[in-house]
Amino acid sequence: MAEKEQQVHPLAPANDHPRSDEESASLQAIELKRKKRIKYAVYIAAFAVFQTAVILGFALTVMRVKNPKVRIGKITIETMETNNTSAAAAAASFDLKFTAQVTVKNTNFGHYKFDNSTLRFLYDGVTVGVAVIPKARAKARSTKRLDVTVEVNSRALTSTTALGSELSSNVLTLKSQAKLKGKVELMKVMKKSKSPEMNCTLTFNVSSKKLQDLKCK
């Protein structure tokens, strides 16, 4: 009996379905949109950080209100009379008239408006002269200069022993004190009260009748 010829049949290929061009394009579009969303999110986050930095910088600089500085800028002497010729120190005296330039330095981003203030001059703790600093306005980030006429003398002193000793050294030391009361106005919305104080020491040379030294703090 003849052997039946065995038939060999090849295995059927796996049931693979290669992606069509439409599917590939759709996947690419989805990936592209995902990358764009990530990029936009990064931009938004960076902008938010930038805005926060700008607001913080604005708050620390523009909106931060500092105390203005009030000082005596210079002195112009009109008359100076001193007496220490007597052997007795009790005869010592002084009488001065001068113009003091008061400066109000405002470093804020808003103007500083202040009222009339009293400027006092003292010798050895005793008030020997008073002047008025007129009300004014120091513009934003600028210095306001005001000329004030001052007359000081020794008539209020109950003892002139220390004065006689000082005049014998050809010097006269006075102190000036003042306190301003006003408000810094920012952007015409916010107002903050500020009261800067002056504390200066003036040293006159009675021989040359000139201001020898001026220190303020």
Description:
With about 220 residues, the chain is an alpha+beta fold. It is built from two helices and twelve strands. It is rod-shaped and about 120 Å long.
How is the topology of this model organized?
Blueprint: H1 21-61, E1 69-83, E2 93-106, E3 111-114, E4 117-123, E5 126-133, E6 136-138, E7 142-153, H2 161-167, E8 171-179, E9 182-186, E10 190-194, E11 197-205, E12 210-216
Antiparallel strand pairs: 1-2, 2-7, 3-6, 3-9, 4-5, 4-8, 8-11, 9-10, 11-12
Q: Summed up, what is this model?
A:
The protein has helices at 21-61, 161-167, and strands at residues 69-83, 93-106, 111-114, 117-123, 126-133, 136-138, 142-153, 171-179, 182-186, 190-194, 197-205, 210-216.
Task: Give descriptors for this structure.
single chain, 217 residues, alpha+beta, five-stranded antiparallel β-sheet, four-stranded antiparallel β-sheet, 12 strands
Order of helices and strands: HEEEEEEEHEEEEE
Give the tally of β-strands. Answer: 12
Instruction: State the distance separating the first and last CA atoms.
Output: 132 Å
Q: Structural class of the secondary elements?
A: alpha+beta
Describe the strand arrangement of the main beta sheet, using strand numbers. 5-4-8-11-12
Radius of gyration: 42 Å
Shape: rod-shaped
The percentage of residues in β strands lies in over 45%
- Count helical runs: 2
Main sheet, how many strands, which sense, barrel?
A: 5 strands, antiparallel
* Low-confidence blocks of residues: none
Query: pLDDT average, as an integer?
Result: 86
How helix-rich are the residues, as a percent range? 10-25%
